[in-house]
Amino acid sequence: MNQKSRLLSGQRINPKPVKKNISIIELIEQHFQAYNAARLSEAARIFVEKMLEPDVTVGMSLTGALTPAGLGGSCVVPLMKAGFVDWIVSTGANLYHDIHFVVGHALHRGSPFVDDRVLRRERVIRIYDILFDYEVLLDTDEYIQTILRSSEFQKEMSTAEFHYLLGKYIAERERMLQTPYESVLGTAYRYQVPVYTSSPGDSSLGMSVAAFSLFDSKIRLNPLADVNETTAIVYNAKQNGGKSGLLIFGGGSPKNFMLQTEPQIQEILRIKENGHDYFIQITDARPDTGGLSGATPSEAVSWGKVDPHQLPDTVVCYVDSTIAMPILVSYALAKRKPRKLKRLYRERELLVARLRKRAENWYEKIKRDS
User: Fold this and answer.
1) CA–CA distance, 238 with 92 (Å, rounded to integer)
2) Which residues are bridge partners to 117 per DSSP?
3) C-beta neighbour count of 284 within 10 angstroms
4) What are the CA-CA distances from residue 271 to residues 9, 268, 309 (Å)?
5) What is the β-pairing status of strands 130-133 and 108-109?
6) Within a 10 A sphere around the Cβ of 129, how many other Cβ atoms?
7) pLDDT tens profile 107-127
8) With pLDDT > 70 as the criterion, what percentage of the chain qualifies?
9) How much is the mean pLDDT over the chain?
10) How far apart, in whole angstroms, are the C-alpha atoms of residue 52 and residue 195?
């Protein structure tokens, strides 16, 4: 008999029937056996078994209309409360649409095949198959703009500080009204999770800030501060044997903003580093078009974004985030106890100061050579 190939050492495909009312653990570990189901199973296990170790700092990016689909309160909030996510980069739209629920408005399931001309006449907004009244936008804008007139917003700040201050008001509203759910920004405020937006002008939140800047408001968002703060978080995570893990939902600017922290350390500041240790992405973007959204962990290695020695601990799942996120979150909550909170928001200035100290030699060389 020929010797069995080592390539056949993987777990056998098991066609046993799915049980009635099966647990999420059994479903992922026993029945997600091939194709993107297997990739999601790999992602869930890497997240639970490796990324949630105490020495790993976990960053999460959010792209696509996830919070209008309810995934803010149902998935993102439980991850923060369990200490499974330490910092976030999100589109401004995800943070804005999550506030609709805080204001007290409803978003409804609908059809993606309705006539949008009719929707426009009836003042109904559509996000694919999610429908809501136009007044939801106006009321949410009014609520946000009332907060932005407060004196503590009248300065220049990073988007993390902007979201933290906004979250303070949202958290208080949730407490006063005893809302049945918690918002992303309100929870981030309570648990000191810094939340960044890589394109702060690209949402209704940014549009309100821009509108105030037309007049006498001193509110200014500083994206350069975001670059330094996020880089400092990753640099700090990798010191003294620590690790950095990224959980990426979608792609786009938030994905790149998280990944570019390593090139900022290595390429720009000339600090020796190897890249992020763990990389999990849920996406529907293809790699062959050359876009960042579909770029694989292997490609990221060439930029220094991912540690080449850690490629076995990276995985891409080509599946809708609205399917993968609840499955992944449920599995993680079932398998792991909550982690100690890192509360990175309050550490931002200290971490940036450490990064500045480490980069002094680079800056002195630049000054000498200029």
Assistant:
1) 28
2) none
3) 14
4) 40, 8, 18
5) antiparallel
6) 13
7) 999 999 999 999 999 999 999
8) 98
9) 92
10) 19
**Helices H / strands E in the chain, number of each:** 17, 11
Q: Which domains does the chain possess?
A: 32-359 (3.40.910.10)
Answer yes or no: are the C-beta atoms of 348 and 232 closer than 8 Å.
yes
196 to each of 17, 177, 180, 226, 352, how far by Cα in Å? 44, 27, 26, 7, 15
Gap between the Cα atoms of 195 and 79, Å rounded: 14
193: closest CA among 151, 229, 238? 229
User: Do 234 and 276 meet the contact criterion of CB atoms below 8 Å apart?
Assistant: yes
- Do 156 and 222 meet the contact criterion of CB atoms below 8 Å apart? yes
Which H or E run includes 62?
Answer: strand 56-62
Overall pTM surpassing 0.70 (yes/no) = yes
In 10 A of CB 298, how many CB atoms? Answer: 14
What is the distance between the alpha carbons of residues 191 and 179, in angstroms, rounded to a whole number? 18
Tell me which of 272, 305, 357, 367 is the catalytic residue.
Answer: 305
- Spatial CA neighbour of 226 closest among 137, 147, 156, 324: 156
305 is catalytic: yes
By the 8 A CB rule, do 309 and 278 touch?
no
Place of tokens 């450490």: 354
Give yes or no for a contact between 200 and 223, defined as CB atoms under 8 angstroms apart.
Answer: yes
